[in-house]
Amino acid sequence: MRESLKTLGITAPELTSVEMLNPEGYIPGDIDPKQKKKVDALKNIIKMYTESKPEGKTVIKKPQDVYALLKNRLSGLRHEELHAVFMRRNNSVIDTMMISKGGIDSTTMDVKIIAREALMRHAVSVAIAHNHPSGDVKPSEADLLYTKKLNSALKTMEIGLLDHIIIAQGRYFSFAQEKTFK
Fold first, then answer.
1. How many other CB atoms are found less than 10 A from the CB of residue 8?
2. What percentage of the chain reaches a pLDDT higher than 90?
C-alpha cells in the first residue's frame, strides 16, 4: 500500500499506510499540505466505504437495529436521504443502499427501485429509513402514504416490509412499532 501512496505523491516515512489512512488516525504536522489534502480525501473515501457495508452478520431484530445501522449515514444531513436495508429470511443483512437523495423537506420513495433492488439481491424482507433535517421525527402524510404503497407492492412479490424508520436529532420513529402501515 505504501507504494500506492507514493504514486499519489504521499510520503510519510514515520507512519505505515494503515496508520495514516485510519479514519481516526493521526496525520503528522510536518506532512506537506497538498499531501495532507490527499490523505484526508482517502480517509473520507475509506470511511464512506466502511460505513456503507454492514459489518459481519448484522441481524435486524427490532427497530433499534435499523436505527443503529443507519444513524451515522442519516444524522446531521441538511437534505433528506432514503436508504434501504435488504435482508435474508433470518433478517441478516445482505446489503444496504441509498435509494434517493432529496431536498430540505422531501426525497423520492420510488417503489420500483426498491422492489428491483430487493429482487436483485434475493431479499426476503426490506427495511427503509430516511431522515428529517427539521429535527421532527413525526411522519408526514406523504411518508405514511408511500410506506403503505411500498408495503402493498412488496407484498405482491412476497417480500416483507419490516419497518420504515425516520431519523432526526438522535431520535427515531418506527412505523412498525407504531403499527402505522400494516
1. 12
2. 63
